Amino acid sequence: MDIYKKLKELDFPIGEYVVVGGAMAAHNIREAHDLDILVTTNLYKKLLKEGYKQCLCEQCLSTSRIMLNKDNVDIVPNYMFGNYIGDTKSLIGNADIINGFPFIRLEEFIKFKRELGRPKDFDDIKLMEDYLRKTVNLKS
Ligand SMILES: [Zn+2]
User: Fold this and answer.
1) Where does the chain show beta strands of DSSP type E?
2) 3-class DSSP state for residue 103?
3) Cα(68) to centroid of ligand 1, in Å?
């Protein structure tokens, strides 16, 4: 998936969202299959009015997850799982800006994925930790 093409199409207002799933692709760590975007309540309400619909997949229904879905883009108004409770405002405020778009900081994404805890999350965590280690080495 070309995440930048997609983000350009969506054209969400800066300061109102942060890309979560897709952050690894922004750093060229691995390709993105879909985009997950955390948005403010304000933007969430606006998207609902514009015709975005609640996702009715089995997982959303069984966990009462509030999420909009459209063309492989998932949009959520809160970011939490297990013991991880993301603060939307600071996640947006502290985002990494890459190619003009805001992405969740990888350190934060790692914390979230650790709570999700599926085998593929641990694969991703390892990839991100290796990447961060290399980046730190380059800077020092
Ligand atoms: Zn769903």
Assistant:
1) 17-19, 35-39, 68-70, 73-76, 80-81, 84-85, 96-98, 101-103
2) strand
3) 8
